[in-house]
Write a structure and sequence with these properties.
Structural class: mainly beta
Radius of gyration: 22 Å
Distance between the termini: 16 Å
Largest sheet: 4 strands, antiparallel
Strand order of the largest sheet: 3-2-1-29
């Protein structure tokens, strides 16, 4: 992806001087002013006039906002409450407590019940990859199948694009974006569905997606079969980056010869990436001992603005842990001030360098509609907590154990 221009005047090629954005002001000044409007308000402001509709729907606006990212970029959260084929995802702006509905993905009449997919942002786009679903063309009908589909949401056209499918179908896999190379890398996964808490296939294949060419390239596979894992990028020495894959499950055993139980990994594996492709995998030892915890929790990455190594955090019940690469262990960072209600789960994301711990509260268990979204926000640098409350637009309560989320800057 090309670097932004050095002056805002370069962006004004697409702005028609015959259509003044703000009467009495030059268009370059008006464009600079309008670029500071929160992204969540753009849909309501577009009908104001034709020049505003054109400008607020243009690449020029996104380029201006990303060029002035420190002052006007909106840090948004995209939530997929259910199967995106039938249920719309939503954008949430925590700064303005504003919600925006996005259109559902193009559906296939033969497929239903998509879950365990991955949503990830790269540049001004959101990608939805893989997952597990049921297919009416397969037999038996009650056996879920992994998906190789890939979709991208285009914020300029407000529409979904169907991309080249992955080489290997997969759900519950590790995934990370490589912004400077405009690529996405995926690893592991399987066919497990949320309706079945056990069984399902596992794979070890690794692929890299090239956005410009719209094609997938196979890389060296994981040392072992691994599904339900987490992936992220870490800057190495120089311009090289490392792709980390943590946790997950591989082999399974049975209790009393009947009930299947997963064998969870306590380690991580790392691949060094460079311009010519991926390298070999190296294994990192166990990150915790016997009896500490059965599996890895939800993990988020806080990038270092100076380009150093990121901070890695995990939500383990009501505790937030920080990973130390030097000692290969997790250390307690803080505890969530307000615990989740009984039988509820936490959502865990990072927005603008802060950790957001989310839970939904309802007045009663019989209440079927969505309740109040309570968000507790932790600042790793200041080690302080704050909170905010919003009313989500969902028709059904959120189950954060199955809800897919990703963050994007627009």
């Amino acid at each position: 992806m090309s670097s932004p221009p050095s002056s805002s005047s370069t962006f004004l090629i697409e702005i028609d001087e015959a259509l003044p954005l703000i009467p009495g002001l030059p268009n370059d000044v008006a464009a600079h002013i309008l670029s500071f409007l929160p992204y969540s308000h753009h849909c309501r402001l577009k009908p104001t006039c034709k020049p505003w509709y054109i400008f607020l729907s243009s690449k020029t606006l996104l380029s201006l906002r990303r060029f002035n990212r420190r002052r006007c970029l909106s840090h948004l959260l995209c939530i997929f409450p259910e199967d995106p084929y039938i249920s719309s995802p939503f954008l949430f702006d925590p700064e303005n407590l504003a919600w925006r509905r996005l259109p559902p993905m193009p559906c296939n009449p033969h497929e239903y019940g998509l879950c365990n997919f991955t949503s990830i942002s790269l540049g001004p786009h959101i990608y939805v990859l893989g997952g597990s679903l049921f297919d009416t063309r397969s037999f038996p009908l009650d056996r879920p199948s992994p998906s190789s589909s890939a979709f991208r949401y285009n914020f300029l056209t407000s529409s979904w694009d169907r991309l080249a499918p992955m080489l290997s179908p997969r759900g519950s896999f590790a995934c990370a974006a490589i912004p400077r190379a405009d690529q996405i890398i995926v690893a592991g996964g399987g066919s497990r569905h949320t309706m079945f808490r056990a069984a399902g296939s596992r794979i070890c294949s690794v692929e890299r997606y090239n956005v410009e060419r719209d094609e997938w390239e196979a890389l060296d596979g994981l040392p072992r079969f691994r599904a339900g894992c987490v992936g992220f990028m870490v800057r190495g020495d120089g311009e090289e980056r490392e792709f980390w894959v943590m946790g997950g499950y591989g082999e399974s055993r049975t209790v009393s010869g009947v009930f299947p139980v997963d064998e969870y990994y306590k380690d991580a594996v790392v691949m060094e990436l460079n311009e010519n492709g991926g390298g070999k995998w190296r294994e990192v030892g166990d990150m915790w001992g016997e009896g500490e915890r059965p599996r890895i929790g939800k993990i988020v990455i806080v990038e270092d603005e100076e380009g150093g190594k990121p901070a890695i955090f995990m939500l383990d019940d009501d505790d937030i842990l920080r990973y130390s690469m030097a000692s290969n262990c997790w250390q307690k960072e803080s505890s969530v001030p307000r615990r989740a209600p009984y039988n509820n789960s936490f959502g865990f994301v990072v927005l603008n360098g802060e950790l957001h711990v989310m839970t939904e509260t309802r007045r009663s268990r019989q209440q079927k509609r969505a309740g109040t979204l309570f968000i507790q926000i932790y600042h790793p640098g200041k080690k302080t907590w704050r909170c905010l409350v919003t009313k989500p637009p969902f028709q059904q309560p959120l189950d954060f154990s199955n809800t897919a989320m990703c963050t994007i800057g627009l």
